[in-house]
Amino acid sequence: MYAVGHSIHIRRPVEDVFKVVCDLPSLPDWFVGIEKWEPIGPAHASVGDRYRVLMKVGSIAAGGQVVITEVIEPRSIAWRSELGTKHTARFILDPEDGGSRASIELAFELSGAVSSRLTELISGAMVRRSLDATLEQLRHHCEFEV
Amino acid sequence: MATDTKALIAGAQADFSERDPEFIRRQLPLLWLLSTLYFRAEVTGMEKVPDGPVLFVGNHNGGSMPLDVPIFLLAFNTYFSVDRPLYALAHAMLTSAPGLGAIARRFGVITAGPEAARQAFDQGASLLVYPGGDVEVMRPWTKRFEINFDGRKGFLKLAYDAGVPIVPVVTDGMHDSLIVLTDGKRLAKTLRLDKLGRIKVLPIALAAPFGITVGDLFHVPFPVKVRTNVLDPIDLRDKYGDDIDWDHAYDYVTSTMQVGLKKLATKRTLPI
Lengths: 146, 272
Hints:
The complex is a heterodimer of chains A (146) and B (272).
Chain A: E1 2-10, H1 14-21, E2 34-40, E3 50-57, E4 60-72, E5 76-84, E6 86-96, E7 99-109, H2 114-145
Chain B: H1 2-10, H2 21-38, E1 42-44, E2 55-58, H3 68-80, E3 86-90, H4 92-95, H5 100-106, E4 109-111, H6 114-122, E5 126-129, H7 133-137, H8 154-162, E6 166-172, E7 179-182, H9 185-190, H10 193-197, E8 204-207, E9 211-214, E10 227-230, H11 236-240, H12 246-265
Helix pairs in contact in B: 2-3
């Protein structure tokens, strides 16, 4: 698994930020690069919810189907892929200086040997920039729009 | 020497008649070549610009050669035509520079100052400002994805008092056209450049053709990919009414631009 992560300080308490993060049907509003995020069946931000997802990475949109694997209020939400590009993702919120420290960890795995390592390296940098922009958007959304 | 120094600080007086639409029109093909072939520039979002005077607020990149400014001027003047007046506020170092200053003034560049800005709006013109100025344009390369207006809030008061919307403009890529290793703020202060010429930085950079340079008086920009995006207008009077909180407005505008810049950076394939 190739892992990338990012974090940011948000001037809102973790409870407020969690409300935004756990509203999973609205995730494309602030997750930069997500082109498709559709619930399969009912979506209540609970373990077992499933979504079809497409994320823009370079010249293509990678994706598949993910299942929510963890919802700990107001601390974390995680999912893993069931179909498509193998990956896991986790949002973590920690109290920090009267606000929150929001972190995203994303790990993915590509098939193949040498070429997949090179692809992971280059696409990893692109995903890292997406996560950076995503957290910036989440911060802005929480601080100014809710 | 004292007179020269004074002229350098004060700059040329803002003379609005110096903007020369015919001159700008004649330069557009050359600017297009520079923009398209050398920088492979993409400018998006121009359709969001409302009618009437607006205050364009940009992030400043590229050291002493911030060529994203002419790229934006090209995009504006071709989208709206040279008949829609746009003035860009600049440091007196540019407007009073021999040769280059005269060319810049014909493009509509005027010496930065609140009175000149107000006069421009009174004439129905739009303005382009870079509040981060020398501090942002010389920021270290490691901070190329960061908006840094150095706490300067004058642009907010300008837009609010004139009742014109702020149109944020973010640019990514131009700050790769040289690699600023350090902005040299401490060195500039030690040499009293702030007092002598309102210059707060003295950068040390890796740039063509001289390699390592101190002060970055001139360099040839690397042919980097440049992307500019015009964001949604922000009307401070609509948003804050008569009781504006300047700190909140500053945070809101810079935060909006920070998001815009980082989203633009996701379009990069490689880090540089």
